[in-house]
Every structure is written in C-alpha cells, then in structure tokens.
C-alpha cells in the first residue's frame, strides 16, 4: 500500500522551474480527492488573475478575486471547490483553485493549504529561472524602460509581525523612472521612493544606477545618509550634474516606531491615524546627483501604534490633468480615506484606481508610485 508523501516540497525542488504547477496538480490528483486544479497568477496591474495550466481559459472570477484580496480561503459549489491564496512573506502571487470529489473537511483544508504555501514559495524562487510565470502575468508587451523597472522591484508587498507593506507602480507597462525599494533586517525597515528624471530608457537607467548604488551601500552596512551620498556621487560622476534624481529615504525602527529620513527631493509622505491624515513635514535637501560631494542630514519622525504611512511620487501628488487642481490637494486625500479599512496591499490599488479616474481617460503625463506601510507594533 502506497503511503502519501509527507510534503510536496521535495517534488517541487526536484522539478524543472517551469513545471511547478503540473507537479502540484499531479500530486493533488494522486493523493487527494481532487479532480481538477488550476494555478492563477495576478497580472502586473493586480487587476485580474490568469490561469497557468490552461492559459486559454478565462481569468478568475469574483470568488478568485475575493480570495486574492482577502488572503483567506474561499469555498464554493457546496464545499467542493476550494480557493487558496498563493503568497509568501506577504507578497501576493495568485490563487490555487482545487475541485474536490468529496465535501471539504477541516483536515483536508489544512493539508491542501500547506501545499499551496509550498507552491507559493517555489514559484517565487523559480521566477528568476523561467519566463513562464512572467509571460502569464503580462497581458501586453512592456517598454524597455518598464522591463528595467520591474526587474529592480523587491516585490509588491511584504509583511511581518510588526508591519504590513505594499507598493504599486503606474502605468505598469510603460513606466519611466519612478520606483520604490525596501529591505528589512534586524527589526529595521529601509524604504526608498524615487522620482525619475527624464523619459523612457534614459530615466530607467538613471534609476537603475541609483537603486543599485543605495543597495550596495546598504548591504555594506551603511546608514541612509551614506546610501544617499554614495548614490549621489555615482550619479554625478557619470552625468556631471546634468541629470539628477529625487528620492525619499526612510529607515524605520519596527520596535519603537522612530523614522529616520533623508528627504532628497519631491516624494511626499503622509501619516493616517484613525481617519485623520497629515502631511509629514521634512526639510527638503538637494536631489541626488545635482552637485559633487553633496552631503545629507537625517531628520526624525515618530509613528504611533496603528499609524499608516504613505509615500507618493510626484506622479501622484502633482498630477494635474487638463489643468485641474493637483491630485494631491483633493483627490488623494479622498482616496486615502476610502482605504481606512483596507490592508496596504489593497489600499495602494484603491489609490491608483482613483488616480486613473481623476485623469478621466486622459493619458497620464508621468508615472506614479505609492507605498503604504502599516505599523502594527503595540496594536495587538
């Protein structure tokens, strides 16, 4: 008599990186009362979920979207269909859909949830070695600038015991130089948001230089002042001040809530607390790369338990389609109030959709970034 393997993980690690969905489908069909399986991945706009195993099939419907948005299991069809979120460290990848031949039990849900978690981790690891999953997520061709930007991103959401974090870029398929980056180490979260300079591939190349210069400094143990100064020197040495880049660098103490900030340009920060939204007042310093040997200073901001920090590029706060009032003065605040009960991963999408509506069909003149952080320390 065959004994069910303790985990699907060993099979996933032994499989080619592009065949992970098939491995999970075969495992479920062999060892569980499962008649059909589908893996659905989110597209770049986070607007739809697209099938991998049967790519010609329609995208996921309302139930799949509910599972993806809530990050909770969803059942349907008299408990014969199970939908499970695919996510790892808070980064939402997609949804696993399973059709059962028996009514779902608590034990069966637990076992299949474990398989979904193994699959999510494997998909994230495999993405650098196969194009299959990227091809599913892309619904149209990216510009070269956008290709560079997506390759630079750390992810689109991240969570831990003390925080939840998400970011989104717009437009997804034709970005220029706006960007965000983050990393968490030893209860400290480093977060940067950049306003690009120029258009197209040149803007993306500038951002690539700056992001990698800051990562190089950060990974060598440098603080955010040293990160800003190294990036500024790298940019100036190449362009002699003819090209520069605005950025906001933040290092957040996830235990005490203190933020150390270097404001080197135009990204804006706001803090929302129990419905009240206030701008973070920082003294603006010179953009990176404007002058040789630029020096920067740290400013401090204190978060309170339950605070929501939002950082937006000028493509959000300064958007002025058709000469209208800048989005940051009216529309942004209204959109942020609507996100009060949403997690950051949903809130960034709400703000981006509201920005699209503000343009009323007109093409956006600038790309846009929004990053949302909830500090959870002390709220439990």
TrEMBL record:
Residues of the PPM-type phosphatase domain: 165-375
UniProt keyword list: Hydrolase
Keyword Ligase among UniProt keywords: no
Pfam families (alphabetical): SpoIIE
Coiled-coil regions, chain positions: none
Repeat found in the keyword field: no
Molecular-function GO term, any one: phosphatase activity
Top-level taxon of the source organism: Bacteria
Protein name: Serine phosphatase RsbU (Regulator of sigma subunit)
């Amino acid at each position: 008599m065959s004994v069910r393997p303790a985990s699907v993980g060993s099979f996933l690690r032994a499989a080619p990186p592009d065949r992970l969905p098939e491995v999970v489908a075969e495992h479920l069909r062999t060892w569980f009362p499962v008649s059909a399986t589908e893996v659905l991945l989110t597209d770049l706009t986070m607007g739809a979920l697209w099938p991998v195993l049967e790519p010609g099939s329609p995208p996921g419907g309302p139930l799949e979207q509910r599972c993806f948005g809530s990050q909770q299991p969803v059942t349907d069809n008299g408990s014969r269909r199970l939908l499970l979120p695919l996510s790892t460290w808070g980064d939402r990848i997609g949804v696993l859909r399973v059709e059962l031949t028996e009514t779902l039990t608590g034990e069966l849900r637990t076992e299949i949830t474990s398989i979904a978690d193994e699959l999510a981790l494997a998909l994230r690891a495999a993405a650098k070695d196969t194009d299959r999953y990227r091809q599913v997520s892309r619904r149209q061709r990216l510009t070269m600038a956008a290709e560079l930007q997506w390759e630079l991103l750390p992810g689109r959401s991240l969570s831990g015991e003390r925080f939840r974090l998400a970011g989104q870029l717009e437009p997804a398929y034709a970005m220029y130089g706006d960007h965000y980056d983050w990393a968490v180490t030893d209860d400290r979260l480093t977060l940067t948001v950049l306003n690009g300079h120029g258009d197209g591939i040149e803007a993306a190349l500038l951002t690539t230089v700056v992001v990698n210069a800051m990562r190089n400094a950060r990974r060598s143990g440098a603080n955010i002042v040293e990160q800003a100064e190294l990036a500024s020197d790298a940019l100036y040495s190449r362009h002699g001040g003819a090209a520069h880049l605005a950025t906001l660098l933040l290092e957040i103490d996830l235990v005490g809530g203190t933020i150390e900030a270097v404001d080197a340009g135009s990204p804006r920060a706001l803090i929302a607390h129990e419905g009240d939204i206030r701008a973070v007042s920082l003294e603006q310093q010179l953009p990176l790369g404007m002058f040789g040997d630029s020096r920067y200073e740290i400013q401090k901001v204190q978060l309170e338990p339950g605070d929501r920090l939002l950082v937006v590029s000028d493509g959000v706060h300064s958007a002025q389609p058709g000469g209208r009032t800048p989005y940051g003065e009216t529309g942004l605040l209204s959109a942020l109030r609507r996100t009060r009960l949403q997690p950051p991963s949903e809130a960034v999408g709400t703000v981006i959709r509201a920005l699209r509506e503000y343009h009323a069909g007109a093409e956006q003149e600038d790309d846009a970034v929004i990053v949302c952080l909830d500090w959870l320390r002390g709220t439990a």
